[in-house]
Amino acid sequence: METNVNANSNNNSKPQQQVEDENKKKRNGPKRRKVAHACVYCRRSHMTCDDGRPCQRCIKRNIGHLCHDEPKPSQLANQAAAAAISFSAPLHASEKRTSHQFQQHQQQQQQQQALILQGQTDQMQQPSLQHEGMSAVSMYGFNDHLTNLPVTPLTFASEHMGNEFTVISDFLESLGGEQQNMAPDQALPVNTTEKFFITAANPSDGTNEDRLTQVINAKFEAGFLKPYNYVNGYSRLQKYMDSNMSNISRQRILNVMGTFRPAFRSVAQFLTDIDLVLVEEAFERLLLDYDRVFSSMGIPACLWRRTGEIYKGNKEFAALVNVPLEMLRDGRLCIYELMAEESAVNYWEKYGNIAFDAGQKAVLTSCLLKNPDPECQSVISCCFSFTIRRDKYNIPSVIVGNFLPVSL
């Protein structure tokens, strides 16, 4: 009797354990359905996608407008076949043809389709040959439109640095005529903008500095970041010299540019555009640092670029030259516009002597400041010192000046 009871109890316990195991295996919520074809961004990230377009993952990453499917190889083949048929001669339903003519027409369609597919393959396999061919056409003048485009110095890795060096060279040759911005707008590939949004939304693994570098490079390739164009600064200096300085003063400034021109060329010819973008990032950080410094000091001070455009000044300097503080920002005024003619020439001469000398960075001299209004003839005598801040390539990026008024 006891044996039968134990057997019955074991038989009753097995169904209960199976029921408990089945309850544990059940999923909470609806079962996730596998998607046959993921979008291009979920597919690249190896993440789960859904049937919606845009999918929920792309919507959460704020790139829903870019969500799409990659075309299948069969779709590409159908598109190529449709393109081949569209290029062939149209057939009229009312036209009667013999069987021999119909076969010839089919052979022509197949030959045209094969030529189109072969041409697409050649374009994918030989991009360098096409580039070399275009270079040869531009070099030997076979295309008049290409030969009329402006040509920048080929010795420079960056077009912006080449333009700045060209303007300095033009200064030495002639002062007649206005310098133009010779930087042409280059057409960017369509996928660079898409690449920037993908990189910004989902950067690869690594440190924060590595991720920031990836985002900056992608933003630069998309055309959203550009180096500062110093050509406009030299053009502004030329206009000011033509209308406000004598020939002797202009010649003295030209002599200064002739002294640092070779040193500038030796450094600038190896810089690329991305290097100049990083230099601009360092310049913006300097502006933030000096914003705190200028607000805590009581001496009139301002800072400007190597071409003279003032980008920051404190309220003491604004009161000294009698201009609004807002005018001492974003290059609205130049430092030489606030100096008397002899003082401006003296500044350029002393700046040129130490511009590319890493062993010197500060100069103590004197100057006469004035209001930029031509009708104002009063000047202020000051003890003037300026310090040159150079970037990591030893090119002057910021000049910081302090002015102490001296009573006559």
Automatic annotation (TrEMBL):
Residues 38-67 form the Zn(2)-C6 fungal-type domain. GO terms for cellular component: nucleus. Gene3D superfamilies: Zn(2)-C6 fungal-type DNA-binding domain. Residues 1-35, 92-111 are annotated as: Disordered. It is found in: Nucleus. InterPro entries: PAS_13, Zinc_cluster_trans_reg, Zn2-C6_fun-type_DNA-bd_sf, Zn2Cys6_DnaBD. PANTHER family: REGULATOR OF DRUG SENSITIVITY 2 (PTHR31986). This is Zn(2)-C6 fungal-type domain-containing protein. It comes from Lobosporangium transversale. The lineage of its organism: Eukaryota, Fungi, Fungi incertae sedis, Mucoromycota, Mortierellomycotina.
